[in-house]
Amino acid sequence: MPNISDVARKAKVSRTTVSRVLNGKEDVNEETRQRVLEAIKTLNYRPSALARSLVKQKTDTIGVILSDITDPFFSRIIQGVEDVAHKFGYGIVYASMRWDPQLKHNYVSFLRSGRVDGLLMMGHTVGNEDYLREMVEEGFPLVLVEYHIDNLKTNLLSIDNQGGGYLATRHLLGLGHRRVAHVAGHKNAQVSQERLAGYRQALEEAGVPYNEDMVVYSNFTTEGTIPVAKKILSVPERPTAVFAANDLMAYGVIHAARELGLQVPRDLAVVGYDDIELAALVTPPLTTIHQPRYEIGSMAAWTLIQQIENKEMQPTVNEFKTSLVIRESCGATLRRGNQVHFEIS
Amino acid sequence: MPNISDVARKAKVSRTTVSRVLNGKEDVNEETRQRVLEAIKTLNYRPSALARSLVKQKTDTIGVILSDITDPFFSRIIQGVEDVAHKFGYGIVYASMRWDPQLKHNYVSFLRSGRVDGLLMMGHTVGNEDYLREMVEEGFPLVLVEYHIDNLKTNLLSIDNQGGGYLATRHLLGLGHRRVAHVAGHKNAQVSQERLAGYRQALEEAGVPYNEDMVVYSNFTTEGTIPVAKKILSVPERPTAVFAANDLMAYGVIHAARELGLQVPRDLAVVGYDDIELAALVTPPLTTIHQPRYEIGSMAAWTLIQQIENKEMQPTVNEFKTSLVIRESCGATLRRGNQVHFEIS
DNA sequence: CTGTTAGCGCGTTCAA
DNA sequence: TTGAACGCGCTAACAG
């Protein structure tokens, strides 16, 4: 790979001049500029982003660290992030930490040691994260999505997870169910706790005692959910409804139910969470909690870029609301004709 | 952010010595080492990966460029890539080019200008890609997945797409179908052409004339497929079977069919491609073409790392086979009891 | 065992 | 309009 000196030599100018045409400065004689351009072309020269970043202390890149890059929940969020980032001239690099706090920490160090101008983190685990505090104190641009840390003054986009869990559970209770189970997400994921809290809130409001045998933790995947779903559906007093903390797990529940000879929604009502694209399109179409994912992604990217380009900016906090989307997996729409009173959500 | 000189000053040694303890060299007095370590800790010093990469001409990072990071097809591949890369001490950065050749080109330039040691590319578009030729000629480590370019001597992992298309179509023909439609993928994706060729091959073999009205192009997404699927299912002599070039589009077909009052598999047989995780788990379970995705991903990463660490290596070519997974979306298993002769695949 | 010197590839003064 | 000199933060070669 040729470097800027090779070009300078070939064009018979100084490296400084090459640098000037590279960066589109005006004060270069048109003739020399052409000479330089030609040299660049014949040498097939490409400036080193590395060296450039080193001297400018700027990479024009943002890093996105997420819990699991294969989770469809992130798909629309990522689109939002990309659209905004590209518009502002930033590239994006992703890192997938696969719910491993150690791997997450590694990636944070990896990326912030000069590789990116700022970090967007989403899909978090609960744990010791003093290093995030340090980052914030040092002024490293950071945006967290769905991740509240006490006394941490940084940009935060939160989604009303408790509200979502509440909506989902209330819907099931409103349909007359009393034995409502909950399949929670990753035990050390913050959203799991919040959605569970919403579930409990709805139960309490309806006067249904909380029974911890009705709650199982899973891992946000369909495959991982099938066995635990089978277990919870095999107890003597089996639940008649399940609220799953994401759509993938909801399909795990549905699949498990089918293997046990139960039909959804006839024998079991199921509500999911996330409203992934497929939720509307497969059978049964899933009743689920919708989140404005594209908006979350674009807002997150915008916030991060603002902080990168304006270090003085005060941290912002945005809360996004969720909504219930009623489809067919809990029988509400089917019953609409004759049992409207069941549907109160 | 403190730098290595700050540490050196604090520990009252030279920068070189700091560098030595940083890189775990043995020839450092234990006492000085401790002094340095302490200085590092109190200053909260973190070495700049940027500067280090600049001097070592090595980033310990591989870049992965893919067509659409939100496509579940990539999920297991990515897991394979990550497992291998981490084992060898490499980080990974992803870029999603969203089927935009220009964006792809941009990301290639972006990443190879010193940001990564090698590039893994998958999910390709057909187009002018002389820049890939240049990369290969310059010896830049490169692995292509499912992307054949004439006379390009680089590492290639190919999957037998034509064979997969053939398997899928033959299965439908073997079940007695004669009006078999095909929903192809992105028009400028290479895999689309190959799977289409397999479709035609099977038709020809069965003596069924090729009818181009039976082929529509879509974009590998469920949403994008619903309208075109509706169109192809609304012709007077409507198809009784559809081979879709990926599973997401197969679900688009199924959804469209349902909206038209057709039941799958009773009124329409559908075969997908990819065998994404959800394919086995939603209703109807999808008959589809399986590809060894985890193996593809791990092999791709391994090959790339080999080339990075051993520049003399000869390019390797690996071809992976596909297989047909029979589930319920084309009625084969349902008929097994009484019409076994239909099933020849 | 430790320090000095040189250089990775570039951008940015400041003079000329 | 151009170039020399310096520095970004780090590692490597060579002395001592």
Task: Please summarize what this structure is.
The structure is a homodimer of 345-residue chains. With 345 residues, chain A is of the alpha/beta class. Helix content of chain A is 43%, strand content 15%.
Please characterize this protein's 3D structure:
Two copies of one chain form a homodimer. With 345 residues, chain A is α/β, with parallel strands linked by helices. Chain A folds into three domains: 4-56, lambda repressor-like DNA-binding domains (434 Repressor (Amino-terminal Domain), Orthogonal Bundle); 61-160 and 292-321, Response regulator (Rossmann fold, 3-Layer(aba) Sandwich); 161-291 and 325-338, 3-Layer(aba) Sandwich (Rossmann fold), CATH 3.40.50.2300. Chain A has 13 helices and twelve strands. Chain A has helices at residues 4-11, 15-22, 30-43, 49-56, 73-87, 101-112, 130-137, 161-174, 190-206, 222-232, 247-259, 293-309, 332-335; strands at 61-66, 91-96, 118-122, 142-145, 155-159, 180-184, 215-217, 241-244, 269-271, 288-290, 317-320, 323-325. The model of chain A is unreliable at 334-345 (pLDDT under 50). At the A-B interface, helix 4, helix 5, strand 2, helix 6 and helix 10 of A face helix 4, helix 5, strand 2, helix 6 and helix 10 of B. The structure holds a DNA duplex (16 and 16 nucleotides).
Strand numbers in spatial order across the main sheet of chain A: 2-1-3-4-5-11
**Total domain count of chain A:** 3
Overall 3D shape of chain A: elongated
Architecture of the largest domain in chain A, according to CATH? 3-Layer(aba) Sandwich
Mean pLDDT of chain A: 91
Structural class category of chain A: alpha/beta
What's the CATH superfamily of the largest domain in chain A, by name? Response regulator
Q: What does the largest sheet of chain A look like? A: 6 strands, parallel
| Through-space gap between termini of chain A | 64 Å
CATH class of the largest domain in chain A: Alpha Beta
Strand percentage of chain A, roughly? 5-15%
**CATH topology of the largest domain in chain A, what is it called?**
Rossmann fold
Helix content of chain A: 40-55%
| Uncertain ranges of chain A | 334-345
Gyration radius over CA of chain A: 26 Å
Number of helices of chain A: 13
Q: Largest interface, per-chain counts?
A: A-B, 55 and 54 residues
Oligomerization category of the chains in this entry = homodimer
Number of E strands of chain A: 12
